[in-house]
Amino acid sequence: MSEPKPASLPNDQASAARAIRPGAGRWLRRYVRTSLERVVFYQPLFLMGAALLIGVLCGGAAVGFHHLIHAFQRLFWGLDDFTVEGIRALSWWTLALAPALGGLLVAPVIRFLAPEAKGHGVPEVMLAVARHNGLMRGRVVIGKALASALTLASGGSAGREGPIIQIGAALGSKVGQLLRASGQHVRTFAGCGAAAGLAATFNAPIAATLFTVEVIIGEYSVLQFTPIVISAVIATVISRSYWGNEPVFRVPDYELVSAWEFGPYLLLGLISGGMAIALIRLLFHAEDRFEAWRFPAWLKPAAGGLAVGVIGIGLPHVFSDGYDTVDAVLQGGLAGWLVLLLLLAKLLATSLTLGSGGSGGVFMPSLFLGALTGSTIGQFSGWLLGDLAGNPGGYALVGMGGIVAGAMHAPITAMIMMFELTGNYAIVLPLMIVCIVSTMVTHLVQRESIYTGKLARQGIDLFRGRTLDIFREIRVADCQRKDPPTIPGSTPATRVIASMLELEGSTLYVIDEQGGLHGTIRLHDLKHLLTRPGALEHGLLALDLADTGAPVCHPEESLSDALVKFERSGMTELPVVTPGDGRLVACLPYAELIAHYNEEVFRRDSGETLAHRLAATRKPDNVAIAPGVSVRTWRPPPVFWGKSLAEAELPLRYHVQVVLIRRNAEPVPGSDEAEIIALPDRDYLIGSRDLIVVCGRDADLSGLPGA
User: Fold this and answer.
1) Is 580 helix (H, G, I), strand (E, B) or coil?
2) Residue 134: what are its φ and ψ, rounded to 5°?
3) Could you tell me if 654 and 660 are in contact, meaning their C-beta atoms sit under 8 angstroms apart?
4) Whole-angstrom distance, CA of residue 58 vs CA of residue 186
5) How far apart are CA 330 and CA 153, in angstroms?
6) Global confidence as pTM
7) Among 610, 602, 605, 603, which Cα is nearest to 632's?
8) Which residues of 607-619 are buried (b: 16+ CB within 10 A; e: fewer)?
């Protein structure tokens, strides 16, 4: 006979009993949960911890990528040391066929594993950061590593920096996704990975950080800069533990011999700009030619590789990244005629490799071309100035920075990069002049850089580094209103007027039987009917009254595109239709667009800092942050329960911004403690036990329902 069960206590008595006898396990779990919550919501610590992890992962990835390239080189060439002397000892057919075989193996990797791995990689990272808050697929890490290692190891003319930037950015993005970080933080983590990968590869943490801020992210803020620096430093520490602390290129101590050299250096800046333009345009031309070529897509990288192999039979210097050739030029060890010949051959080989669909970066080819260009000008300077001119190797060093600055439109990054790659500070003055002049020349002739140009050719203008860029990062689907007011085309005019009078807005959408948009009817379109007696007796239908020339939006368009349509049409609301069948799915009010813009500006400029400071204080009941502007805690009434923040339209209707949400702020006995959500997404569903911290003018805050 079983013992009788004790009678259950009322809820309040049970809670009291648990409070008296919490137990060590319950107390420990609560302590750990509270401690973790404080750590997670202490933003600097969270960012630094994630940045440290990304730095470790990317440092290891850079080392692994280096070993993967060398392993494939041994398979393709049978050489442990991939140098020009070693390649020359091989048969001519090996030189011709190895790059073709590499291209043949690259094609299926790109086709089936990661199409993003095609090309030099940096534009894809820039697009992910600018348009998708840094979201990248994890498979890019494997796909890019394999495709680029095969391309470089088989002799394709490209560099390692583009692949490792994309690999690192994908790792950083994946870390942010696994940590369920906000979109802004995932964007920062992708930048952390890009900087870490580049820093580990070139032993240049400062230049890698500046490159990420100047080129990839396109803007500066302390909250982004700090974790990027941490990741770059950690990755560099790991790479130095493998390869030592020596600069990538060992350069003699070149210096500015006389002020007369500024003339040849100015000429070098002009020519470097021209060479950067040639590289950009020849690369784009090769991409167009291979794209238009009616040839199996999976064979195009092999065809490009075969062409590179044919060039390499006579000039094996063009194979792979060409580190040893650049080093020889910096030491002044190549003849003038060979330098000029290599200049043209490397331009052609790089364009063939990447234009045909190979995978690799353009940074190292830019350094290669810069060294050759500078060496040529240095030899000319020696002939012209005699003892008043420095060594051609110094000009080669400066020329490397000049073409990198012009091709990337990033002079600051180029200056610092050359200093870190060589450890030579003595030529900083001519380096600054050449980088600036080259960038000016390139920008005057070629508006887009070698990175943004690839995106611009696809119709993507990143408009980077400006506040208005917010419009280009937000889709129409993020602001549209579903279930717009519709009316069949066969509706009589009298019923159209009645429907318009019952409408909250000012636009009706005329649709056909399949839901396709026929046109729009606005309130002022009906004025002539109301002012002309008897006009309604002519049997007019909605089809007759509709304006069929109104512009439409698509859900995946950016708000920047929608804004242009608003300006040209003068409408206050635009229909949103599917691109294929023109079916009406939503509408986009101009007021919603502006409200969303203001919300994003608040989120980026001050919302993030304010939210995390309030989360740390845990007492945001009523805080004055400026005269007439406050932060208050608001308990949403039942009418808002179950609605998303987008449906609640707090910025649009009540002119307040949501800073954070205290989820389950009124816990029932035995439930979890309240969870703090800083700057929640617009699709967050408001719960019955939520407290919302809002910011706005005092008059607007007082106007909130239930306030």
Assistant:
1) coil
2) 80, 5
3) no
4) 16
5) 24
6) 0.67
7) 610
8) bbebbbebbeeee
pLDDT of 550-573, one tens digit each?
A: 889 988 888 878 888 888 887 888
One-letter amino acid identity for 69?
I
For residue range 241-250, what is the model confidence (pLDDT) as tens digits?
A: 988 887 777 7
Tokens of 615: 């989360």
* 592 burial level (CB within 10 Å; 0-12, 13-18, 19+): buried
CA atoms of 442 and 373, how far apart (whole Å): 16
Distance CA 503, CA 497 (A): 10
Neighbours of 629 (CB within 10 A): 13
Lowest mean pLDDT among 144-148, 443-447, 600-604, 674-678: 600-604
Given strand 657-663, what is the order of strands in its sheet? 622-626, 629-634, 691-697, 657-663, 675-678
Write out the two tokens for 434: 């050449």
Separation in Å, CA 543 to CA 287, 485, 511, 571: 48, 15, 9, 19
Six-digit token string for 616: 């740390």
Q: Rounded to whole angstroms, how far apart are CA atoms 356 and 287? A: 6
Token pair of 102 as six digits: 């590499």
- Going across the sheet that includes 486-488, the strands are 486-488, 507-511, 517-522
Residues in the chain: 707
The arrangement of strands across the sheet holding 573-577 comes to: 481-482, 584-589, 573-577
Average predicted confidence (pLDDT) for the chain: 81
What whole-number distance in Å separates Cα of residue 66 and Cα of residue 60? 10
Lowest mean pLDDT among 371-380, 500-509, 549-558: 500-509
Contacts of 23 (CB under 8 A, 6+ apart): none
Total Cβ atoms within 10 A of residue 651: 22
Q: What are 125-139's pLDDT values in tens digits?
A: 988 887 777 889 989
Query: Nearest CA to 337 among 302, 376, 366?
Result: 376
Going by C-alpha positions, the residue among 152, 148, 147 that lies closest to residue 77 is: 152
Residue type, 460: I
Cβ atoms within 10 Å of 159's Cβ, excluding its own: 25
